[in-house]
Amino acid sequence: METTEIVLKTLAAAGKPLKGAEIAELAGIDKKDVDNAIKKLKKEDKITSPKVCYYQPK
């Protein structure tokens, strides 16, 4: 499974906006990989940021 898919599933399962470090901890993957996945997901318009440094699925 791709990192972007893991990040998206983790955000959906959480049910609340999460920070990058929280996503990395819950998903069990490296923070740098999460940051890259977040950047890619934002470009694809699949996630939003309700407040600074927090992310949630659209």
Write a structural description.
The chain is mostly helical and 58 residues long. The protein has one domain: Winged helix-like DNA-binding domain superfamily/Winged helix DNA-binding domain (Arc Repressor Mutant, subunit A, Orthogonal Bundle). It is built from three helices and two strands; from the N terminus they run H-H-H-E-E. It has a two-stranded antiparallel ribbon. Helix 1 (3-14) crosses helix 3 (31-43) and helix 2 (20-27) crosses helix 3. It is globular. The mean pLDDT is 95.
Look at the structure and give the CATH class: Mainly Alpha
Taken in chain order, the helices and strands follow as HHHEE
Strand content: 5-15%
Biggest β-sheet strands, sense, barrel: 2 strands, antiparallel
Strand order of the largest sheet: 1-2
SS field, number of helical segments:
3
- Classify the fold: give the CATH topology: Arc Repressor Mutant, subunit A
Structural class: mainly alpha
Distance between the termini: 20 Å
Q: Would you identify the regions where 5 or more consecutive residues have pLDDT less than 50?
A: none
What's the multimeric state? Answer: single chain
Global mean pLDDT: 95
Give the helix/strand layout.
Elements (H helix, E strand, L loop, with lengths): L2 H12 L5 H8 L3 H13 L3 E2 L7 E2 L1
Antiparallel strand pairs: 1-2
Characteristic terms for this protein:
single chain; 58 residues; mainly alpha; Arc Repressor Mutant, subunit A; two-stranded antiparallel sheet; 7% strand
